[in-house]
Amino acid sequence: MQNVLRDTVGTLEFRHDNGELSQVHTEKAGMGMRIRIANLQPEVPDRTIRDISTKYGDVKDIKEERRTRAYRYKVSNGIRLVEMSFKQHLPYQMATAGHRVLVS
Fold it and tell me: What is the SS3 string spanning the chain?
């Protein structure tokens, strides 16, 4: 990837099926992604999750995962979805609010 970026200076031409040419800008993707934190009590506030996650990167958003639509009411399933960009790798488990949580 580094070679492609260096050789093309981050810009490529793409030829569509109809012959039209488009300029495509390329760049290295960041280390951002969504992680799932499981085994967490629903009453644990997002602020607690943000506090333990910030030493691993910048937290952009936290949402509660809910049970499937098959259930009549939207009920938390104990999993939080955390969108963040990483500065370092996250451990597969952490301790927070007196609980061991699993990270995937």
Answer: CHHHHHHHCCEEEEECCCCCEEEEECCCCCCEEEEEEECCCCCCCHHHHHHHHCCCEEEEEEEEEECCCCCCCCCEEEEEEEEEEECCCCCCEEEECCEEEEEC
pLDDT one-digit tens code per residue, 34-48: 889 998 887 888 999
**Whole-structure pTM value:** 0.62
Q: Which of 25, 33, 42 is nearest to 77 (CA)?
A: 42
Pair 58, 89 in one domain: yes
Residue 76, phi then psi, degrees to nearest 5: -65, 140
Q: Is 50 in the same domain as 18? A: no
Can you give the residue range of the structural domain that contains 15? 1-29
